[in-house]
Amino acid sequence: MKYLLFGTGEYYQRYKKWFEKNDITALLDNSKDKQGAYIDGIKVYSPQEGVKLAYDAIVILSFYIKEMKAQLIALGADESRIYHFFDLRKLLGGKAARRPVQYYGNAEGVFSRRSEYRKKILLLSHDLTLGGPALALYHAAKLLKGDGYGVVFASMMDGPLRSAITDEDIPVVIDENLQIETMNEAAWTWGFDLIFCNTFVFYVYLSERKTDIPVIWWLHDSLFFYDGADKEVLRTIDLHNMRVVSVGDVPEKAMHRYNPSMEIGSLLYGVSDMRREPTDAGRDGKIKFLTIGYVESRKGQDILLEAIKLLHGEMLEKCEFCFVGNDTSLLAGRIKEEIRHIPQVKMTGTVGRKQIEALLNGADALVCPSREDPMPTVAAEAMMHSVPCILSDVTGTSAYIKDGVDGIVFPAGDKDALAEKLRWCITHKDGLKEMGKQSRKIYESYFSMDVFKKEFLALVEKAMG
Questions:
Q1: Which of 146, 107, 129 has the alpha carbon at shortest distance from 452?
Q2: CA–CA dist 337, 341 (Å, integer)
Q3: How far is CA 32 from CA 15, 36, 37, 48, 458, in A?
Q4: How far apart are CA 465 and CA 449, in angstroms?
Q5: Which of 10, 179, 219, 450 is the most buried (most CB within 10 A)?
Q6: Nearest CA to 370 among 339, 398, 394, 349?
Q7: What is the pLDDT of residue 327?
């Protein structure tokens, strides 16, 4: 088989391991900065030029499959030869060499000993980045360990969260094979009393499973993430001895789009209380707006920038805007270029947890301008810090906010409405501070660790009978 791999960013790095270099005809990317260059010794072409090459299959290594697939078809590519990374298991046909499993901490000790634990629980994460779903599962792991369970935290790929998990004396397993294996094939995962699958990505793993092992499937994902999935597999997953729960309505509606009969419960996440008393040290009297998230179309940072451009003169001079998050995307490149002439806006790229806490502690408001966003962890973290949130109405957290009382909600994609909300914040600084105090109550009622612990542990005990 000869492959064209479409996409050279994060998901190329995640999945390139499954392809022999000699089998890759070329890489495709829409970035003009990458076209003509070589990555891993393989030339990068534009999609227009790439589809003219000889190939057996094009594999899209991105979650933007809908747009990228449509682009390929418009360029004359045969739709039957276009695949997504979710299709790798059936595309490779079992020919891929198995990757070695890596163990950190006392993982093998948990596998072999039973008597010292109430029961053994495996937590499966799609990655170990500092994103919301992985952090939510990390907090869940700490609760289970504190309640006497033998806990192993496993992931499809390594990342910065691993050290935080092992620091809690929770063993970690990195098994890249989980990207393409089912439960029936991943034999090391069988020796547990409960398996907790975090995010929709584990639908391939769950497509063939040992139904005698209880499973909890925790959905965090919006409809956007389902575009590359095999919809027939989603409809035929065996739900016996499995409980499916969702972080709010957005992931539930996404799954029900493809499997309307699936019974889905609710499980919000918990955020540890790290609040510190805000300080005015180093403040210059400006209103500090913060937005945190991977810089991409789905997160809507471009909408926020367009709203900022509608602020003029003295109004803009009173503000500081800080964009935090991975800034390697095409959208991030465009935003960097545009803000060169707007000194009130800065981009930091990815930062660590301590810096995020410091930024939240010094912010006047958090902005989530997303086009879709199930339940961003950073919104709960902001409210924990008594920082009010300005949220689009398709952000899951907006369901808990009373507009103008304990937060601000605006119509998704409406830059004019967002600009008006920003103006209100600038001219009502005292009101903004009071709104932040009220937002803290949302955190305490729905996202505190006390609330999460009660609901989470009850769910675990039910799942294990």
A1: 146
A2: 8
A3: 22, 8, 10, 12, 52
A4: 24
A5: 219
A6: 394
A7: 86
Q: Which two three-digit tokens encode residue 248?
A: 């709010």
Tens digit of each residue's pLDDT (9 = 90 or more) over 238-248? 999 999 999 99
Helix (H, G, I), strand (E, B) or coil at 431: helix
Per-residue pLDDT reduced to its tens digit, 190-249: 989 999 999 999 999 999 999 999 999 999 999 989 999 999 999 999 999 999 999 999
Which residues in 314-404 belong to E strands, given as ranges?
319-324, 345-349, 365-368, 389-392
* pLDDT over threshold 50, residue 281: no
- Position 210: which residue type? K
SS (H, E, C) 254-271: HHHHHCCCCCEEECCCCE
| 80 phi and psi angles, rounded to 5 deg | -70, -15
Using N-to-C axis directions, what is the helix angle for 330-338 and 301-309, rounded to 10°? Answer: 20
Residue 213: CB atoms within 10 Å: 17
8 A C-beta contact, residue 160 and residue 130: yes
Instruction: Give the pTM.
Output: 0.90
How far apart (Å, rounded) are the C-alpha atoms in residues 18 and 4?
13
Q: pLDDT of 339-364, one tens digit each? A: 999 999 999 998 888 899 999 999 99
pLDDT digits (tens, 9 = 90+) for 378-405: 999 999 999 999 999 999 999 999 999 9
Distance CA 353, CA 359 (A): 10
Cα–Cα distance for residue pair 205/405, rounded to 1 Å: 43
**Are the CB atoms for 368 and 395 separated by under 8 Å?**
yes
Q: In this model, does residue 282 exceed pLDDT 50? A: no
Extract the tokens encoding 355. 């810096």
Q: Which two tokens stand for residue 104?
A: 């950190």
